[in-house]
Amino acid sequence: MTIGRKLALGFGVVLVLLTLTGVIAFRGVSGMETDAEEVIHKNVLVKDLSQGEIAHLNWANQVVALITDESITQLSVETDHHKCAFGQWLYSDARKEAERQVPELASILKEIERPHQELHESAIEIDHHFQQADAVLPGLLATRMVDHLKWADLIRDAFLNGKTSLEVETDPTRCALGQWLTSAEGKKAYEEAGPELKRAWDQMLVVHRALHESAVDVCRHIAEGEQGRVAAKKVFDERTMPLLEQTLGHMEQMKLAAEQALEGQNLAKQVLVTKTKPCLHTVQGLLHQAVGCVDEVVTRTNDGMMASARLTKWSVGVLSVVAVAIGIVAAVLIARGILSALTKIIASLKEGSEQVAAASGQVSAASQSLAEGATEQAAGLEETSSSLEEMSSMTKQNADNAQQANALAGEARKAADTGAESMTRMSKAINDIQKSSDETAKIIKVIDEIAFQTNLLALNAAVEAARAGEAGKGFAVVAEEVRNLAMRSAEAAKNTANMIEESVKNSKNGVDIATEVGKVLEQIVQSVGKTTNLVGEIAAASQEQAQGIDQVNTAVSQMDKVTQQNAANAEESASASEELSSQAESMNEIVGELVALVGGASGKPRSAGPQRGGRRGELSRSDHVYHDIASAAPARTPKAKQGHVAKPAVKRPIPLDEDERLDHFNS
């Protein structure tokens, strides 16, 4: 069995055990995670049920506060059993999920629906019956009614006893009822009163004021003596007594309204005691029962989770111990197999290092022979390259001069062509001038004839003016002036004709001269054209010659490049032979380390092959020759190839394998 298979088998067994341990741990943790999630959900359920109980206790306290707290005048609790927080949960999918998790809750939640509904309906009934009432108000109103009856009896007694004054209160705000109405207690009772009580209250205030005002009139009349007594009796009978009856009637209505409010408050208290509290007690008991049921399930789940945790702990511990034991046994067996394999590898490496040392000597001798041939070839190519470089330089100079002469001849030809063209244009211009002069002469002749005819007409006009006598005298003067103008025009036309004739003669002479110059320029153009053609042929021949020499120079440069490459290769071969020897020494050292690793320091062998101490990393004579050739090669390269750089010598060791530590050897 190979080392790889032994390692694979040992690590495979350990990995299988570790995988089994991981699977058991994962399943155990997953089960505990599931149980933990279930416990969390049930704890949330317990919290929801407990919050429902607390919420209904607070709800009941608010209902009780409506009856017991005078500052609360309106019921502000949720009366719909579907809309309270617990009702929303009770009639939602959350209840179904809770019943799925804890099936025992189904009967309890079903049982709680009816008392929960009646609990909220009792709040509606309490809100319907309840009225804010003052328990003292009915008795107070009865007392004030008696006071006003006594007040009327005092007035009646005054009539019977013949008194002239009344000892009764005539100010409606200072009587006992008026003082209570204007007090803080009375104002508070009015604010808390119901609509019927307020309506009777307002009507009573008006009548009560009128009642006391009628007493003022009675006092005024009774003070008048016997005469006023009848009027006073009339006011008492017709005004005071009817107003007293109305006042007492309104007070009776107020008393009845207050008693009705007390009765509604008592009914609300009765509903609170007979329905609200029993329903609340039932709901609380069922919620307690539901919470206890959920707590029991949570306790069972916790016990199962702890048992699963203990089982997982023991399973993982046992498998871990087994995996460690098997790993130790596999390590011992694999170590023994590796030691035997390494012993064989060491023997093979020792033999290989000796063979490498012998081969390095042979490579060094071959490299020296190759270096001598490369030296001679490089010297011959250097002389050839120098001669070709000088010839190429002279040929290029001749080609450049021929090209410059060709360019100058071309420019001269262009100048001659331009001059001939200019002379042609000048001849044409002179011909045009001659034609214009001929036309001008014709025009002058016409002007001369017009002047002659004008002169004749002026003579005729003068003759006719003389015949007319005194009447044509002015016309004669005009005719004379016209004649003078005609004579002057004829003289000017004659002078102009002479000048134009002279200009025509000069134009003809210019045309003749321009024709002669054009012919001479045409001959010059032909001569320059021939010269340009000859110079062009010379330039082309020089260019072809230069190209041929460049090709020869390129071939020599390539030969020089090959020679340099050979020199570089020779240098690399020499360096490689040195590195090969160095690798042999390194291999011997590695073998010694392996021997020390396997059998201890006492088993370290001697280095195989000839020792080359003192020369490791140094170059031999032939290596220096290669190095000189490669270093001097760029200086001998022609100018056209000065960009070429010789390949540098290899500076890294030659590896014997992809892994210098021999980790991949196997038995």
Structure write-up:
The chain is mainly alpha-helical and 667 residues long. Among the domains are: 3-132 and 271-331; 142-266. Helices cover 84% and strands 0% of the residues. Helix 1 packs across helix 9 and helix 8 packs across helix 9 (226-468). It is flat and about 180 Å long. Keywords: Chemotaxis, Membrane, Transducer, Transmembrane, Transmembrane helix.
What portion of residues belong to β-strands? under 5%
Q: Can you give the helix content as a percent range?
A: over 70%
Helical segment count: 11
Sheet of most strands: none
Q: Please state the overall shape, judged from the principal axes of the Cα atoms.
A: flat
Record field, number of beta strands: 0
- Unreliable stretches (pLDDT < 50, length at least 5) are 601-619, 632-667
Oligomer: single chain
The span between the termini is 8 Å
GO molecular function: transmembrane signaling receptor activity
Subcellular location: Membrane
Pfam family, one: MCPsignal
Keywords: Chemotaxis, Membrane, Transducer, Transmembrane, Transmembrane helix
Can I get a quick summary?
By secondary structure, the protein is mainly α. Helix content is 84%, strand content 0%.
Describe the SSE topology.
Elements: H1 3-68, H2 85-90, H3 93-101, H4 105-129, H5 137-161, H6 176-182, H7 184-192, H8 195-222, H9 226-468, H10 473-599, H11 621-636
Helix pairs in contact: 1-9, 4-9, 5-9, 8-9, 9-10, 9-11, 10-11
List the keywords.
mainly alpha, flat, disordered C terminus, 11 helices, single chain, 84% helix
